[in-house]
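Field: COMPLEX_INPUT
Field: COMPONENT_COUNT = two
Field: RESIDUE_TOTAL = 470
Field: MODE = joint
Values follow.
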Amino acid sequence: MLENTEEIELIGLLNKIKEMKTDGSRIVQICATKIGSSYELLYTFGIDYDIKHVKVKTEPGEHVPSITDIFPAAYLYENEIHDLFGIAIDGINHDYKGKLYRTPVEAPFG
Amino acid sequence: MAAKRSVIPFGPQHPVLPEPIHIDLVTEDEKVIEAIPSIGFVHRGLEHLVTKKDFGEMVYVAERICGICSFGHGYGYVDAIEHIMNIEPTNRAKYIRTLLFELSRMHSHILWLGLMADAFGFESLFMETWKYREKVLDMLEAATGGRVIFSIMRIGGLRKDVPDEVLQGFLPGLDEIEEGIKACEKAFLSDPAVLSRLKGVGYLSKEDAIDLGCEGPFLRASGVARDNRTSGYAAYGDMDFEVITSDDGDSYGRCYVRIQEIYQSAGIVRQCIEKMPKEGIYVPIKGFPNGEYMTIIEQPRGGACYYVHASGKKFIERMRVRTPTFANIPALAKTLQGCDVADVPILVVTIDPCISCTER
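Field: COMPLEX_OUTPUT
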């Protein structure tokens, strides 16, 4: 288990992210990992050198809310996850609509 | 009369861009109102290879993410695996890794100085700076046998030792490089024509730099003293150095920070040579990695994250590399807002974009 990681349900994601913003965290990265048939999303935040992770599980076909209303700079990470894994992310402030990565195969990591 | 809005496409082919990135510049007359970046022209999917390559062989793939920061990519991946497998490399291996890391930073920053000089049209300065980069590459070749890709990293330590006499031979070269860069520094930081292209151009406030997830010299030039080397990974905990910042927040500040970091890296290389422990360079490993870990290191262009998720098999489930250029793109878009169209090429260069890293 990754240190400083809190596992939460998808329904509580935005509230948790708002909490991180209120604490003064910055977005460090977001990544997806395919575990069996489902996906794990890892959101990483930092205050100076102090790093915290938030992990949520999502199933194929489930829609994940964008965090770009809270962290506007997260748009590249969310577009990347959509393009590589095929995970639907709703409400991205700069939605490239599947055109961030010009891959010949749709969702190559999915 | 209201100014007419136009959209000017910048890139993916442009004289200042050795690699493809595209930016749609929304302009009013000569001012940029909004910048919309696009990447993904040459995405390689190297991260996915981790599911098809033996975890030991993957070191070589990680190194090939980029030709400039190749050592750091190999280090980041190896460090994550070593943490998962509870492997503690020997001190000599840690010191040699630190030394190679700093030589890589020097050559990357000097390369950037040359590209910057070329971007503002000072070609003799470009050639002069790259003359010193060659000397750093000669040192890397003497130490590892490679000038760009070293293939010296290995899970558990290093593939080969660097003899002490080779390391001692670097000392005069370091003096010569520092002297040469000091001469070039006058042009970058004092020449009136150069200052007119850098001073006050592309300002990014400290608050924006933090909010937008900015990394590396781009971040430190806005007055934020964050450098992951201070966390003490490899042998950095034994090194005496301070984080270099600038309060300028503009192109001049980014230039200043990188130049000072060249001297700082030379100082760290000297400390490594002076304190180099005498012991082995490799600790044997057993079994397969099982667990997850995220290593955060300071690449020449900024903080880079290496996430590894392994499940006790020969092949790893997931490797994710968050490169500094990827993190710096939203801040670049912010920096471009309000600048003159003529300043766009220089501002793109000031973040030291590495598209090869970004398009893993």
